[in-house]
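yo

u said u wanted the structure for the complex thing, so here. seqs first:
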Amino acid sequence: MSEATLPDRATNLAAPAARPRTARRTGAEGPVVQLLLITVSLAFLLLFLLLPLISVFVEAGARGWAAYREAITEPDAVAAIRLTLLVAAIAVPFNVVVGIAAAWAIAKFEFTGKNLLISLIDLPFSVSPVISGLVYVLLFGAQGYLGPFLKANGIEIIFALPGLILATIFVTFPFVARELIPHMQALGSTDEEAALTLGASPWRVFFAITLPNVKWSLFYGILLCNARAMGEFGAVAVVSGKIRGLTNTMPLHVEILYNEYMGAAAFAVASLLAGLALVTLALKSLLEWRYGDAIAAARRH
Amino acid sequence: MAASAASSSWRQPSVLPGLGLSLGITLTALSLVVLIPLAALFIKAASAGPAEIWAIATSPRTLAALRLSFLGALFAASINAVFGLILAWVLVRYEFPGRRLVDAAVDLPFALPTAVAGIALAAIYAPNGWVGSLLAPYGIKIAYTPLGVMVALIFIGLPFVVRMVQPVLEESQGDIEEAAALLGASRLRTIFTVVLPPVMPALLTGFVLAFARAVGEYGSVIFIAGNVPMVSEIAPLLIVIKLEQFDYAGAAVIATMMLLISFALILLVNLIQARTRRKLGDV
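structre next:
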């Protein structure tokens, strides 16, 4: 599965800058065909992407500003926002550390089983979010393999914060590693080797050379990891138990409100998440436009 | 840290330190978070016993849910392959106002939480929604039918094809197309014989990624699907329902079936992919 599940995201990152201007052959097709294809593309995007996005904000504001403010400041909503931030604040740094470690091992060394390791790191992408939550219920749930042990020791994982964090880490596991691996592979190890020869300590080499070299890919990975961590629904829905004020994250709160026919309130909370998505997209595009160049240049060396 | 391993044969020697530490962290985290929990799933499914596994796997409701998830994903990924290719072509080859903004917007399904996408799509495609109300007079219902499932799956898979195809189209060289044109090939023939063949592996990869994502998709689907058993109930939802009924074995068996079918399909496509690559040279 290695190839199909490992799209080279660094290529995407570098693509806009590396785009050869000469290859743009405006006029290869007739203007009518061009206009037709552009219209088809934009209509498709409008139907499937733009309208849903706009509708979130329109529906959120349907009951007016006061209702909107009420929906996002009532205690359950605030608790959900807090919980979402807390889960992301733990899951994302965990995946950053593991992602950097994985990228270091995979990009800087040659060892047997490397391709298998890459496939395994990518595995969570081909697992349904619901299954990502299910595996923890089977392991830690009341009737799970470790359930009796956990209960005897008073440890709560499922229907509690640890379960939410574990499920979130599972679904966001590959994000940081898959951005860093291609970039670090492209950069090679000569800088690090030179620094080591000059007597720098291993940690100094890492913090003074490796990390600054890949900082934009790292930031890119963190951005995507965070967006998914805060927005994850299926995996956390399974392990959360949806106890209001306790184990209810923002996406789950949206679902509860929606199912209780409180559409405007659901869309109000959803609009916060949509705002997060827009900020993520904006930062991501900014990175691609500004630093795609540097990364593309690094990849050619 | 890794000095002790420098002479062993499973790795090539390197002057860089830290293989032991970095590989140790990676393997520990991978095992604890991903591999052991997944193993628990397979053990749970296997422990149900052959008779029960067969009963769960062949129950009409399970089969209907699996059929909807896999055929729906296949349909959605096909739509995405066609429109994703056109979209990538337009973004790479044509100049039009707002092109960069459109380019950035393609990634929206990656960034927008699935639950938000779900309620928004349900609102638009419901009979009283912006799009649904236009179709309702013609008797076409999208939300709360299997068609609604497709809409959500198309939404979720859209960026995969575009983002896989785009870099390949950017690299494809205009001079070969010019040569083809000079040799008298029509534009359409040039596109189908010169431009598209090198794009095929990337298109297929994008298709598989969109498909794999769509098969397991839950959040964006359940709001728009209507979730009628045997009709518009997707496999991930059936897993959730089994869990809520504390039927752990049932949930584990369906989950294992989903994973095995997905992995088999991905493996199959990778084999085709490898063959195409060999035939076309390294593209």
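Confidence is low (pLDDT under 50) at residues 1-27, 296-301 of chain A. Chain A touches chain B through 115 residues (CB under 8 Å).
cya
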